[in-house]
What we know:
By secondary structure, the chain is α/β, with parallel strands linked by helices. A nine-stranded parallel sheet has the order 5-4-3-2-1-9-8-7-6. Helix 2 crosses helix 4, helix 2 runs parallel beside helix 12 and helix 4 runs parallel beside helix 6.
Amino acid sequence: MPATRIGARFTKNQAAGKKTLITFITCGDPDLETSLMLMRKLVDAGVDIIELGVPFSDPMADGPVIQKASERALAHHVSVGDVLALVRQFRQQDSDTPVVLMGYLNPIEHKGYEGFADEAVAAGVDGVLTVDMSLEESANYREVMNGAGLDTVFLVAPTSGADRSQKIATASSGFVYYVAVKGVTGGARADFVEVAEKVGTLQKQSTTPVAVGFGISNPQDAAQIAEFADAVVVGSAIIKQIEEQPGAAGIEAATELVRQIRQAMDE
Length: 267
């Protein structure tokens, strides 16, 4: 498939000797207006790629922070259509920053692969990370998404063996997401020595950039991960700021945290 904004951003950052910063927020938490404002502020703070969470009633891979974010969004009846409309709004001012939709298979199947892919591309989405799409069942999904111009990102778990990890990395486009901790998002601090070893193996097995997420909550952790990974993903720590400080204060706190993370990664 042709290069997407995701591939272009990794290529640009690698040429500049810079690591890629990816941030996750839940679309519609606490409302769509805040999500749009936060997306724009995150880019200003140095974010390279935005993962936009599609609210879902049973987010099995997510810890309490992101679960509550989904609940707040669903309380306002935020749908896949609303998520795509938000991306269209974002694209009115930003045609460069890659956007990846992260969520679960049910809403995609409800629309149908082709219908979802066409609408996502038309809105300005660059990739999809569908948490509960297994590699073994993904051939048609990948064919449709890639054919429409969407990258398909897959998760590699710390419990995945070398052979399976290689297959997942090969099936991924844009980047492959290595889960740093056993469990859910926002979990315990990762064992960086073990993570570095696993990431190093993945980088030898595939040319797909490796992003590391789950359990990365502060500038120090992000800087350590950036020493060996191609990208760092931060999510729960950002959403926590929005939860604890509603309104403009939460947006500013989240943005400041990201500024500090970007600075630590660059140093």
